[in-house]
Amino acid sequence: MAGDLQSLVDDLASRLRRPLLLEDRLQRVVAYTEQDGPIDDIRRDSILRRHTTPEVREWLRGAGIHDAPGPLRTPGAEALGLLPRVCLPARHGGRLLGFLWFIDTEPRMTDTEVEIAAAAAPGVALALFRESIASGLASRRELEAVTELLIGSAGGAARTLIEAGAFPQGGPVTAMVARPASGRESDDATRLALEQGLLAVRRKAGSRGLLHLVRYDHGVLLAAAGSAVRPEDVHAVMGPPVVVGVGRPRPELRQAAASYLEAAQAAETAVRIAGLGRTVEWADLGVYRLLTQFPRGTFGLHPGLEPLLADAAHLPLLETLETYLDLAGSAVATSRTLRLHRTSLYYRLQRVEELAGTDLKDGAERLTLHLSLKLARLSGRYRPRTPEAREP
User: Fold this and answer.
1) What's the helix, strand, coil split of the chain in %, to 5?
2) How does pLDDT run across 155-170, given as a tens digit for each residue?
3) Do residues 121 and 26 both lie within one domain?
4) Is residue 356 located within the same domain as residue 272?
5) Own/partner pairs for 113-118, CB < 8 Å, 24+ apart?
6) Whole-prediction pTM value?
7) What CA–CA distance (Å, rounded) separates 7 from 14?
8) Domain boundaries, position 111
9) 279 lies in the same domain as 380
10) Are residues 22 and 105 part of one domain?
11) What is the pLDDT of residues 75-125, one digit of tens each?
12) Contacts 24+ apart (CB under 8 A), 120-124
C-alpha cells in the first residue's frame, strides 16, 4: 500500500467524515480508511481479500462505473449484499486508473460532499499513475530514493534505484530542471502541472532510465544516456510555459546531484536573464557560471552604478555600457550593434564616467563594472530592454 495514496485517502475521508476505499482499475484494493460507518459484506470481504468478487465487479460494470466521466451513484443490490455507493472514477489523461468508493447510506452524501470528493480524484489518479510507472519500486520509495540521491546520501539511494531496476547501472546521468517561465512563486496548481508533465515524459519514453522529482518551485528529470529524452520533450508536455536548465553529464547515478545543481542554476538564470532562451545548458552560461556559485547579496556592486540603477532615465546609459564592455571596449562594434552614431556613443560613455565616477580606460574598473552589471541582472535590479524596444 503506497504511503502517498494512503495519505490522500486518509485526508479526504477526514474532510468528509466518511469511510473510504480506493481500488485500482481492476478493482483490487489499494488503500482504505477506518471503517467506522455502515459497512456491508462486500466492503468487509474486499478489505480481507484485497479484491472484489467477480460477481460484484460484473454488476458494478453494468452500473456504468467504467464509462462514467465523473461521480456516479450506484444503487444497492440486495441479492449481492451490496449497499448503495458513490463511485468516483480516478482518471489521468483520459486513462482509467481506479475508483474511489463511499458507502451512500443515511445520511446520504450531499452534492457538496460529492463535489469535494470529485475535486480530490485527479490527485489520487496522478498518484496511481506515478505508482504504475515506478519500475518495480513503490512510488513512495522511489520518491524518497530520488530525494536522498539529490540532497542526501547519494550512494545508498543510487544502489536502491539500480537494484530495483529503475535506472541502468554504470551509465552516465544528466539532470534537467524545469521551472515556470513566469518566475512567480509556485502554487499547488503549478506543482501539479510539473508532476503531470514529467510523468508524461516518462510514460512516452518508457520508465527505465528516467527518474523525476518535483520540489517546491521546480521539477527535476534525471535521464540515463540511452533514454533519448531531450529538453524539447519536456517543453512539449508542459501546460504552463517553462524554462529548462541542463546540467553536464556525470559518469554514474550517485553523482547526479552535481548535474542537478548545475541544471538548477541554469534554469534559475534563464528565468532571471531575458534573452537566454527557454532551454539553457549550464556549460553555455558564460560568466553566469561563476556568478551563480555565490550566494546572493554577498558581493556589492560598483558604487558608481548605484545612482544609475536608481533612476530609470539612465537605462540607455547602462545598456550602452554593457554592450561596450561585452564587445571588449570596441567603439566600432558597439556603434554598429546599437545602431548609434560614434559621437553619440562617446557622449554616453563620457556621461557614464561622470555619473559613476569611473575611468573606462582602467582595466580593473571595466572588469568591476562589467561584473556588477551581470550581478544586477541576476538580482533583477537591471533589466535591459530588447533590441527592438531601444531607440538610438
Assistant:
1) 50, 15, 35
2) 788 888 887 777 888 7
3) yes
4) no
5) 113/16, 113/18, 114/71, 114/86, 114/88, 116/12, 116/15, 116/16, 117/12, 117/16, 117/71, 117/86, 117/88, 118/70, 118/71, 118/88
6) 0.62
7) 10
8) 3-132
9) no
10) yes
11) 999 999 999 999 999 998 788 999 999 999 988 999 999 999 999 999 899
12) 120/8, 120/11, 120/12, 121/88, 121/89, 121/90, 121/91, 122/90, 122/91, 122/92, 122/192, 123/8, 123/192, 124/5, 124/8, 124/9, 124/12, 124/22, 124/90, 124/98, 124/100
**Comparing C-alpha atoms, which of 123, 134, 78 is closest to residue 100?**
123
121 plus 12 within the same structural domain:
yes
Q: Could you tell me the CATH number of the domain that includes residue 204?
A: 3.30.70
- Residue 130 per-residue DSSP state: H
Q: Answer for the pair 216, 180: CB distance below 8 angstroms, yes or no.
A: no
Measuring CA to CA, how many Å separate 136 from each of 27, 114, 123, 130, 359? Answer: 20, 34, 21, 12, 65
Q: Is the pLDDT of residue 133 over 70?
A: no
Number of domains observed in the structure of the chain: 3
Condensed to tens digits (0 to 9), the pLDDT of residues 240-266 reads 899 999 999 999 999 999 999 999 999
Secondary structure E strands in 181-311:
210-214, 219-224, 242-246, 279-281
Q: Which amino acid would we find at residue 124?
A: V
Query: Are residues 311 and 275 part of one domain?
Result: no
Please indicate, yes or no, if residue 141 is contained in any of the structural domains.
no
Q: CB–CB of 278/235 below 8 Å?
A: yes
Q: How many Å apart are CA 72 and CA 69, to the nearest integer?
A: 9
